Amino acid sequence: MNLKKYFIRALHRLQKGPGYTYKELLVWYCDNTNTHGPKRIIKEGPKKKLIWFFLTLLFASLVFWQWGILINTYLSYNVTSSLSIGFKTMKFPAVTVCNANPFKYSEVKHLLKELDRLIEAALERILQPTPGNSSENASPPLDLGLWHQIPLVLIDEHDKDNPIILDIFESNQTALVNETAAGNETACSHQGSDNCTYRNFTSAAQAVTEWYILQSTSILSKVPLHERIRMGYQAEDMILACLYGAEPCNYKNFTQIYHPDHGNCYIFNWGMDEEALNSSNPGAEFGLKLILDISQQDYIPYLSSAAGARLMLHQQKSFPFLKDQGIYAMAGTETSIGVLVDELERMGYPYSDCTMNGSDVPVKNLYSQYNTSYSIQACLRSCFQNHMVEICGCGHYMFPLPEGVNYCSNEDNPGWAYCYSSLRSSIRHRQICIDSCKETCNDTQYKMTISMADWPSEASEDWIFHILSYERDMSTNVTLDRNGIIKLNIYFQEYNYRTISESAATTIVWLLSSLGGQFGFWMGGSVLCLIEFGEIIIDSLWITIINVISWCRGLKQKRVQARYPDAPPTVSELVEAHTNLGFQHEDAGALPRDEALPPEPGTPPPNYDSLRVQPLDVLGPDSDVE
Amino acid sequence: GAMAPGKKITARIKRTLPVRGPQAPTLSELMRWYCLNTNTHGCRRIVVSRGRLRRFIWILLTLSAVGLILWQCAELLMNYYSASVSVTVQFQKLPFPAVTICNINPYKYSSMKDYLSELDKETKKALETFYGFSEGKSKVRRSVDEWNSTGSDFFKQIPLLKFEDFSKTVTDFRSGQKRKIEGSVFHKDSSIVNSGDSNDIIGFQLCDANNSSECALYTFSSGVNAIQEWYKLHYMNIMAQIPLETKEKLSYSADDLLLTCFFDGLSCDKRHFTRFHHPLHGNCYTFNSGENGTILSTSTGGSEYGLQVVLYIDEADYNPFLVTSTGAKIIVHDQNEYPFIEDIGTEIETAAATSIGMHFTRSRKLSKPYSDCTETGADIPVENLYNKSYSLQICLHSCFQKAMVDSCGCAQYAQPLPAGAEYCNYKKNPNWMYCYYRLHEKFVKEQLGCQQICKDACSFKEWALTTSIAQWPSTVSEDWMLRVLSWDKGQKINKKLNKTDLANVMVFYKDLNERFISENPANTLVILLSNFGGQLGLWMSCSVVCVIEIVEVFFIDSLSIVMRRQWQKAKKWWNDRKRDRSGKPLQASDLERQGHDNPACVDEDLPTFNTALRLPLPQDNPLPRTPPPNYSTLRLETAFTEQLPDTLEVGQH
What we know:
The structure holds two protein chains of two kinds. Chain A is α+β, with helices and mostly antiparallel strands.
């Protein structure tokens, strides 16, 4: 009992709040709160009171609804984009130049000799199906080992249900007369097994090219890397002249990189070892000027049919994916490329789904062995190669190798071509890679304005070829010609950047000010009002506790002292009545006994402001007559 | 207790919901009450401040705060319809666009002989007359000459003319005679003519057939342009008379144009192409037109996985006067878009591999009220003549065609036919060329109103192309390549192909990043209200409640006070008149009660929405009460609580 008393006293001390009943509390709150509506409720007459009550409710619900919208907006993490265009001193892009043809034919001839003879014979058979060709008889017997792995066949689809398949070297030639224009290639997973697919081509030219690429990659994949680099085009042979702005440069300023598609590629201003060069002026005079020689005579005839230099502009420290982003430069022309740097800077998670450096992408980046930064192309290719290693057991020649894996070749992996082509056309695997790779947040593209002119002009041709030949080969003979020489000008345009950068549309500051705006707009409230409200809830909680306690006590006393008609005032009430001076007037207002005067003639109480409060007339009429 | 039940109820209502007048008896009191009790911050300061200067400053501050609020809120409202731009990049499987490929030469010249021989003969004659160009040196076929011309009147009508020294003397190439031009003459581009210093100017004259004095003279600084324009004019006349089916046969078939096709690492053929007849380019072929319901998509970027086509451009069969360049035209567009090859096509060179890297951007604008664009084109009063989705280009062409049909009576050859119209030719519409040139001039000068009517579309797709060219086939591969390609074409022609008859095109996605630029409303209602709330709160700590207060106090209450004043004045005037007539002196009580402080006056007011509910009180309370002391300082808004005496007085009247 002692403890209980103590507890109650403690409650009272803590409470000292605005009254004993909920009504008192509410009236006190309405009168004293800083929000605008509730004050009105108690200050007005009954009708207006009702109106104000509903208005306040309406506004409160409006505020909560709008808050919901605002918080939702905030959590959707919208971004706003700002665009800026202009010229500034920028890092000159890294320029990768390659030859469209990966190897010098003179260097790889000994490796491809058998293959070339095979394809020549095959072409001969296709094009001139009449037997008794003299060239065929004179040549030494063909090595049909290569052929049997992946033979070229002709498929006659005149009869759709029963296509006739003819192996070029094994069928009788008379049958070829009735052929449709369908050069076809077939790939078997294992020789002699039934697990074969035919890759159909409607054009023999395509079939032959694809077949040759498949065969030659298999052959060349066995050649060690340094040997392949030696067989490719050397920098001093390819890059004849170089000028950056007013400064001369030469092939030594280029970084060599071995690219599986294009052999030796040379990157200017890659920024791997030295600082990237800046360009602070627009125009061709301040850009990079190159003269290249692609020596077209030394092309592998069946491998690449297009002749030219392949070049690409990319960011420093990124790997050049020439098949995707590269452009051609034609021999015998001067190609001018005006560059506009188109940047997109994004915020990353949670604003947009992108990756800053690729560390959060679940694909092992195989291009990191080149020391290059993450890019979506690198991710997709690594993803493909990982699948390839997983399924076919060897790596594809076009992509870097994971550790401990070898490139596919016909000897070690006889079924690799079948495996590769089925994997390549598998939409499911592509989708897996697309889903697991993310684009980078900072996306830089180089928008190029390409124009071309004939170069060198007929009048200047002679001396230009003479000088360039002399410089390269130290010979007075002209070793260059129109079919090999390319001039390139790469420079910044007048406006060299267009940057789209994202910023958060909704920050926490925005959220708070909007929340405040809404609350203020409808109810004139602030955070303090919310605290007030919280206080009232705590108060009402106290009142509930007190009421429950007093009710319990009343129950007990009722049982003991049932003879008293009215419950005596509780201790807390008595105590509070004396201690809580601040709210005496509320008591007076709330209790009807002061107002319950009969309508006798007499002087009504003086209308002193200090004595009169709103509840007087609010509550007055209720207990007036009845 | 002796009241009627209805009265009792009304009395009860009256008691429980007593009706009160305004918060104060007079305007100044009301203002004072308002200032003291309002939730806004400034007003209270005005009232409680001591001293005139201080009060004046507070009035000034409050007013400027109100002004600021109004200004800022007006700004907020005016900027409500602004849009913010967001750019999103998505890496995904992308739908491959439709790729339309045409030969630059529309129809095989060999098969057009029947139709064009006469025109060609005229052209050659003109060349010979003006420039001494003789037949023997040209590659033009002799067979044309053998055609025995019956002499068309139409060529006579619009001959090529040679002008001499800006005089109105011209030489007609047919007669070789000099004559003066009659009628009013205007030049198509007068600035060039006037500034030029060449002696001989070639042109042609178009006259209104109905009114021969109305003539337009079209001159060109170079004969090349003049001959081509003149040729084109007649060519369109001839072509307009040929039905579509015949024209499709005269043009190239898919087998003629397409040698090889390769898409996404797989072989494709003519079945993947849809024929599309273009009036100026003949038969064009659209890859991935989506006609069979499926749209191809690519899930890998790069040149290997795009579309690779080798085209056969039969240069020997080119029309020498109509087209002077060799190659193909290609356009990348959406499946729903009409390919405007003649306007925005990319030209493809022969004997070269053209690599076209694409970068996909999708844009979306907000339509009204943010910007003036149209979503579907349904709200544009121009009928879409093309069977494709709306674009600005389609609208402009349709608009011009409509104007053409309206004013010239026939349709222009290069654009589709509206319902019920037919193409212009000089058999049926001898006047059309003059009409067309005048109309086109108006169109270019924006006098037809087409540019005003047509709006740009709200959403559009764009494929930015990076085009580069390499030599193809390379010198070492040329031999086998041409042999194999000839074999591919094999059955049809037996000669070996020439590399200048071939063009290799590669169209591919550079990357699968789709850029989506979209406009979003910068403001929503929620944000606007928040901003209002912020402004109101910042300057005056005001909210909607204050606005309601203001409405209540300044409109309802003030109005009722003013009305009451007027009513009292009227009553007083009425009483005075009555009294004057009866000669009675004023009663003290009357005087007393006219004081503005007298609460007894309160309920004399005109009905406001509060008093509309008022009902008469029972008159069972005749006991007079002493009115409360009239201390102004003590009386506040509740001075009107004492109602019984007032109603009593009403009852007494």
